[in-house]
Amino acid sequence: MTPKGTKLTDGRHQMPDAIELLRRDHEEVKAMLSELEKGPVAADGADENQVMLRKRMTEQLIIEESKHEAVEEEYFWPAVREHVADGNRLADHAIDQEQRAKRVLDRLDKLEASDPQFETLLGEFIAAGREHISFEETQVWPALLAVLSGEQLRELGGKLEAAKQVAPTRPHPNVPPSPGILKATGPAAAVADRIRDTVTGRDAP
Description:
205 residues; mainly alpha; Four Helix Bundle (Hemerythrin (Met), subunit A); 6 helices; elongated
């Protein structure tokens, strides 16, 4: 058996599965949250460069979270609803968490790191983000792994990976988290986001 994500003998690369892709995202986000928790913050005497770096780090967090949640709502949660016996309840709970997080990130994205509200909102997101990650990893992933084959997980992973390349880079809390609406409006939103990113000098890979 060829390990996931390794090179096959004919030169092709095996597609990583959905859980593997989401786990990578989670590890990246958790590392960002830990780094942001370390500070220093403006209220504790951080200098101008440190405050600017903190804003840039938060922007990168918002970019990664925005792309991650968009592709989950397009493909991952529909798969959970379809295949897991308790999928509707799990997906509804997770999407509610994501929508609340989007509202926080949308407000956070508009603030400078020197604004007193910045740290309040960031702290709120850090706590909510860790709670959401734990819910996915401990309750959703095991349920999905129990019912999907390796081939199905790799197919889902391919959809997630492709969608992430063209996903919005900013939170859009007023867009309903419907897969159909997201697939229809997502590409246009992503283009608009990237134009804004270029104009403002925001880093959006």
